[in-house]
Amino acid sequence: MELKEILYDQMRLSSRLVRKLKRTKNILVNGNKIAFHARLRKGDRVEVIMEEESNQFEPQNIPIDVVYEDMDLLILNKQPGLVVHPTKGHPIGTLANAIVYYMQERGESFKIRFVNRLDRDTSGLIIIAKNPYIQQELSKQMIDNQVEKRYLAVIKGCLETEKGTVDAPIGRPYPEDITRKVYAGGQPSITHYEAVEQLKDATVVRLLLETGRTHQIRVHMSYIGHPILGDELYGGKADILIERQALHAEILRFLHPRTGEPMEVKASIPADILELITKLS
């Protein structure tokens, strides 16, 4: 078997990662650098060196809630109001800045690789891969719909049916507008929902994403006439009982890329959503 077959078929490395490893000469067989097409013998040891990459983010002492951590993964319960990654409008004060500070305090160093993203005002679970292989494998699971993503939300009104599915394409018809819409030219998007508690002119729902489009839950709930409370962008209007959209990424289920073991992580429901539910009960 050739070295390249080991890398692609058995180690399941992406073409992009293999090209980078070749360029940096970080593929070794029995401690030596050999030709990419060389044939290997039984007992040969293939070693791939993942070099640490630095982060360019300023460390900031912003509290983070660590739900799970090991040598490959850091999973956080993101608080609402926190942008995930620095942008032109939010160059500092982001989750990435907080993670760099967290690393420095622990004497660690790894490039921050977000596997999933959340809107600024959506709370809940964020996965950070600590090396490119883990990011690659989890991204594959995302594409193959092997990562189960469950959310909790408080929506306006009472649902006609306790359970349902919204299967409606979502897109961004106008590039200058950040809002997404349901329209024929959008990407296939599927959201499953289930009512768990009826409130005063509102409903607590749990949602399962079958696809992962930007703003998907917010768009789909608005589309069926039940926008998320506090979601001004999609018809939820400003709500005196909560200062952001009442949406929380509660549960993630996936296979650990290194061990293959099933993983389930859960983020506790934040205080502002619990308070909202109490006031509407």
Automatic annotation (TrEMBL):
Record domain Pseudouridine synthase RsuA/RluA-like: where: 72-222
Active-site residues (renumbered): 119
Keyword Iron assigned: no
Transmembrane segments: none
InterPro entries for the chain: PsdUridine_synth_cat_dom_sf (IPR020103), PsdUridine_synth_RluA-like_CS (IPR006224), PsdUridine_synth_RluC/D (IPR006225), PsdUridine_synth_RsuA/RluA (IPR006145), RluA_PseudoU_synthase (IPR050188)
Enzyme class: isomerase
GO annotation, biological process: enzyme-directed rRNA pseudouridine synthesis
Gene Ontology MF term list: catalytic activity, acting on RNA; pseudouridine synthase activity; RNA binding
Record EC number: 5.4.99.-
Source domain of life: Bacteria
Pfam families linked to this entry: PseudoU_synth_2 (PF00849)
Record's keyword annotation contains Isomerase: yes
Catalyzed chemical reaction(s): a uridine in RNA = a pseudouridine in RNA
Entry keyword set: Isomerase
Assigned protein family: Belongs to the pseudouridine synthase RluA family.
The protein's role, per its UniProt record: Responsible for synthesis of pseudouridine from uracil.
Protein name: Pseudouridine synthase
